[in-house]
Q: What sequence folds into this?
């Protein structure tokens, strides 16, 4: 009996050892998967200041939104671009222009084929202190004018281009009050700290205010593009949010919020002053 057990023992121990190894591998894989999921954290969406309010409205209607942990970080496009270049842990970037997404693509920092146009912006002249019915209001205006910083904010660059088109830039540039982004510019005018300002039309629409929309042929198109950051650990969810923003219903919603449709022609291009 002892001889038989002696012969069987090595086989038994060998099989037991194999089972332990398999069990350890399964446990290790399961633990790794759980840890990876736990470390994923929120989906970090870097969004241009002008679009942050609209994005929140869109995401309020996101199906099964309670299942997703989304974190919105808002700033000027140029600021967010520099942060991404320096390794900021964003998953999705909604820019207020096409230049920065294209630069990130050239630097191989985005997911291939993820660069998409999601909105077309408009700018408008507005005052919280007096009604404005025409851009001619700027012709003899001697006071301060608020715009976003042209170097980092696409809406500020568009404002500079429009003023240049109207041959008003040399006269007005010394009286400019520049905000770090278009949201700050809007608040400067809304608080009446600055009498006139060039703001995003979407800001006026969402706040039920009226100004003078500046024809789009006065400035380069404000083509707003989104990209998925290559280093993202939540690519599938980033794609889901990207597709949701680009779908027909979301695009129709953006039109109602003061943006131009991505695919339609713009009647303001025919406007003449």
A:
């Amino acid at each position: 009996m002892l001889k038989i057990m002696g012969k069987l023992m090595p086989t038994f121990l060998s099989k037991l050892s194999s089972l332990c190894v398999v069990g350890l591998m399964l446990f290790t894989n399961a633990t790794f998967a759980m840890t990876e999921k736990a470390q994923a954290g929120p989906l970090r969406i870097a969004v241009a200041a002008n679009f942050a309010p609209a994005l929140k409205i869109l995401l309020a209607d996101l199906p099964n939104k309670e299942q997703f942990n989304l974190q919105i970080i808002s700033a000027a496009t140029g600021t967010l671009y520099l942060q991404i270049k320096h390794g900021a842990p964003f998953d999705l970037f909604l820019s207020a222009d096409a230049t920065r997404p294209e630069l990130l693509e050239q630097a191989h920092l985005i997911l291939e084929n993820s660069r998409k146009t999601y909105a077309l912006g408009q700018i408008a002249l507005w005052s919280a202190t007096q009604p404005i019915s025409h851009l001619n209001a700027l012709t003899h205006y001697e006071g301060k004018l608020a715009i976003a910083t042209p170097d980092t904010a696409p809406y500020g660059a568009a404002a500079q281009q429009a003023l240049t088109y109207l041959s008003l830039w040399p006269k007005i540039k010394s009286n400019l009050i520049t905000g770090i982004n278009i949201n700050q510019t809007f608040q400067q005018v809304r608080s009446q700290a600055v009498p006139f300002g060039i703001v995003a039309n979407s800001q006026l629409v969402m706040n039920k205010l009226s100004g003078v929309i500046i024809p789009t042929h006065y400035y380069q198109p404000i083509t707003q593009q989104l990209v998925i950051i290559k280093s993202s650990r939540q690519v599938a969810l980033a794609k889901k949010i990207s597709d949701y923003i680009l779908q027909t219903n979301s695009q129709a919603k953006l039109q109602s919020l003061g943006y131009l449709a991505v695919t339609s022609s713009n009647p303001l291009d025919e406007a003449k002053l």
